């Protein structure tokens, strides 16, 4: 009986320790994607078909690191388009409209880049899971995390994320729908910004329509603070609430 109790305590402590480890790994992985926490990002999104360039668009992303982001469309012909993200709620404002319309985080902006992908949403806090195994990705020893969304409103209900074993940088991710259908495959590339190693490019490979890819490149990032009024859908059309 005493041995049984010790075994149960050991298993319980092991599960708690792994959950804490996964939470810490996700925070470290997020720090490579948005090290400033609150920042203005100038972003270029390009699509390819069968390896050939197709289309490209530019966005300015104002992200506050607490689940709030504002995407401003900067390509010719799209002036005035905005997408607001506040937690699980997404709105789009079209030029000339007084009220924004609700959209989903999977609403496509260009190619396979959805609003949730460009808004630089984080994994920590939104996903939980476990370390499934150790794998090698292009010569990089990685931990493979099998993650489940904490809320049904999130873009991807399951994420299989591989992070570098030595520093938890994200290397590769498989993104799944609620039906467990694999939607996209994401690969991350790195550069140096403000003296830190960060994700500068994410390539999304369409797993439904093969031969298509979307590349999301962060051209620049500037640490900034933003007021609450900027993320209010009721004032989204007002020109006096400027970033």
Automatic annotation (TrEMBL):
<keyword id="KW-0449">Lipoprotein</keyword>
<keyword id="KW-0732">Signal</keyword>
<dbReference type="InterPro" id="IPR011220">
    <property type="entry name" value="UCP028205"/>
</dbReference>
<dbReference type="InterPro" id="IPR033399">
    <property type="entry name" value="TP_0789-like"/>
</dbReference>
<protein>
    <submittedName>
        <fullName>Outer membrane lipoprotein-sorting protein</fullName>
    </submittedName>
</protein>
<feature type="domain" description="Uncharacterized protein TP-0789">
    <location>
        <begin position="65"/>
        <end position="238"/>
    </location>
</feature>
<dbReference type="Pfam" id="PF17131">
    <property type="entry name" value="LolA_like"/>
</dbReference>
<feature type="signal peptide">
    <location>
        <begin position="1"/>
        <end position="19"/>
    </location>
</feature>
